[in-house]
Specification:
Distance between the termini: 41 Å
Strand content: under 5%
Oligomer: single chain
Shape: globular
Order of helices and strands: HHHHHHHHHHHHHHHHHHHHH
Length: 533
């Protein structure tokens, strides 16, 4: 099938599967996988193959960078020790457990380790499935763990693929050197690219072109990944480190228009790349089934069940063992303040979803060895990885809400409190600066006074929202909500009136688009904001 036709088919598959997932109240990745399996029955699509290296270079930098930029660095610092343990040691233990099970079920050690490395890392994007169920600290821990464990899994994966293909050899000194180069080089490259990216964005911002600023942002993760891979370091760690640094510097670098474009672009890109990965894996899994004999398919299904159980059991045991070990070694009062209850830990043990990164690693397994022969059991690796991803998403997502209710996790009020603090402080700063700024700009006193009154009302409303238990505060908040709803409703009448002018040929399409853009900005400003994850 031609490339353009394939792109159109993928787009239609994402559109239909997204609509069905919304209608059936099912996780979108599950429907996307099913769509890929159905597409596998189309004869023209059966021979579709993407170069394995392209999958890693195109998908991973984008997925990991945006998750890094939107992950709380403060939360990572607070629980760094636990995150490092789950992001490194847990990955190796999990890969070993899955590899041992797969080998016991008949898979050679090389492909077994490739499979173990592919399904070992949790997925940052899949954490969104449970983000509404858990307090912010738990979600931050899961997302941070998934960012770090991707780098560890890729080291294990590269070794397993290299040894199986014949390009690597195992040895203590050799493996140690690879690990040091992977982690040290990846971190160094991430810091370097972030430093260069910050300076480049400052130069670009001086030009006043939001498009160029966003082009710079797009180039940053790919540059970090590519430069690290050229240095034989971890491209994953380079992207993650670069993203975390940019998350701190980014808010002061770009303008409002550039940030709006960035959010819109990355939101769409993340949805498309995740969806395409799930469709492609469904397509490859269907092809893998055709390549497996009856006995091999039965063994693959058993491996899916065994690996899915092993992921949960190993994660559960590791989390509890690591906690008791830390408590035995660190008795400081400060450490006791960080402790979580056992129920919260059970929820975290069940929240280890697998997703896009595992799929990208499975699809990136080469088709041939260095000798020219076929890579052993590639079809089994792809099929089992897809099965494990579906199992963790479906089974754990069905069980987790009940477990979260059983855990009775405390309601997270930190986000609401900090959001109120930020808004109040911003309004207070504007009020304090208003007289001096108005004088510098030569603003008429009437205009400055009118704006001051508006800010005062807004500040009173914010304060009232924090003390809504009093009658006056309740009335003030209700009036603010009613005014916002009224403004939003009137915007629709404004749009209709302007479109009517265009339809009557009194104004040009360009004028309509300009006015509509202004109305859209006002609607976004007035609309209730989504609760942060």
């Amino acid at each position: 099938m031609a490339a353009l036709e394939f792109v159109v088919v993928l787009g239609c598959a994402l559109l239909v599967s997204g609509a069905l997932a919304h209608r059936l109240k099912v996780a979108a990745p599950v429907v996307q996988l099913a769509a890929g399996v159905l597409l596998g029955f189309v004869p023209a699509l059966r021979g579709t193959e993407l170069p394995p290296e392209v999958l890693l270079l195109v998908f991973l930098p984008v997925l990991l960078y945006w998750e890094s930029v939107t992950t709380s660095l403060r939360g990572i610092r607070r629980d760094l020790r636990g995150i490092v343990l789950t992001g490194t040691l847990l990955v190796v233990v999990t890969a070993w457990a899955v590899a041992a099970l797969a080998h016991a079920l008949g898979l050679p050690w090389g492909p077994a380790w490739v499979l173990g490395a592919a399904v070992a890392p949790t997925d940052a994007t899949a954490v969104g499935v449970v983000s509404r169920l858990l307090p912010r600290r738990n979600v931050t821990l899961l997302r941070a763990e998934s960012l770090i464990n991707d780098g560890t899994a890729l080291v294990v994966y590269s070794l397993a693929v290299g040894v199986t293909a014949g390009s690597e050899h195992l040895g203590t000194a050799h493996v140690s050197g690879l690990v040091v180069l992977s982690y040290g080089g990846g971190i160094a490259v991430g810091v370097l690219v972030a430093w260069l990216g910050i300076r480049l964005r400052r130069l670009v911002r001086g030009l006043g072109e939001p498009m160029l600023d966003n082009l710079t942002i797009i180039l940053i993760p790919f540059s970090a990944y590519l430069l690290a891979e050229r240095a034989e370091a971890s491209g994953v760690l380079a992207v993650v480190v670069c993203g975390l640094i940019m998350s701190q510097a980014g808010p002061s670098l770009g303008g409002a228009e550039a940030r709006r474009q960035t959010t819109a672009f990355w939101s769409l890109a993340m949805y498309l790349l995740n969806g395409v990965l799930f469709v492609l894996v469904g397509l490859e899994a269907q092809a893998a089934v055709r390549g497996l004999s009856g006995t091999a398919l039965t063994t693959a299904l058993l491996t899916v069940a065994a690996a899915s159980c092993a992921l949960v059991v190993v994660r559960f045991l590791f989390l509890f063992a690591a906690v008791y070990t830390i408590r035995a070694l660190d008795r400081r009062p400060r450490q006791r303040e960080r402790r979580m209850g056992h129920r919260a830990r059970v929820v975290s043990a069940l929240a280890g979803f697998r997703g896009a990164v595992s799929l990208a690693l499975a699809l990136s397994v080469p088709y041939t060895l260095d000798s020219g022969g076929p890579f052993p059991d590639r079809d089994t690796i792809v099929f089992v990885t897809a099965g494990v991803v579906v199992t963790t998403l479906v089974v754990q997502a069905l069980i987790l809400p009940s477990v979260a209710r059983w855990a009775r996790l405390p309601h997270d009020t930190d986000t609401e409190r900090e959001l109120a603090l930020a808004r109040t402080t911003a309004s207070r700063a504007a009020l304090d600066a208003l007289p001096a700024v108005a004088a510098d700009l030569g603003t008429d006193p009437e205009v400055a006074e009118r704006l001051r009154a508006t800010y005062e009302i807004h500040l009173h409303t914010l304060r009232a929202a924090e003390t809504v238990d009093t009658p006056d505060a309740d009335t003030l908040v209700r009036h603010h909500e009613q005014e916002t709803a009224l403004r939003l409703a009137l915007l629709e009448h404004k749009r209709s009136a302007v479109i009517g002018l265009r339809d009557a040929r009194h104004i040009d399409d360009a004028v309509l688009q300009s006015v509509q853009a202004q109305l859209d900005v006002e609607e976004v400003r007035l609309a209730p904001t989504a609760e942060p994850e």
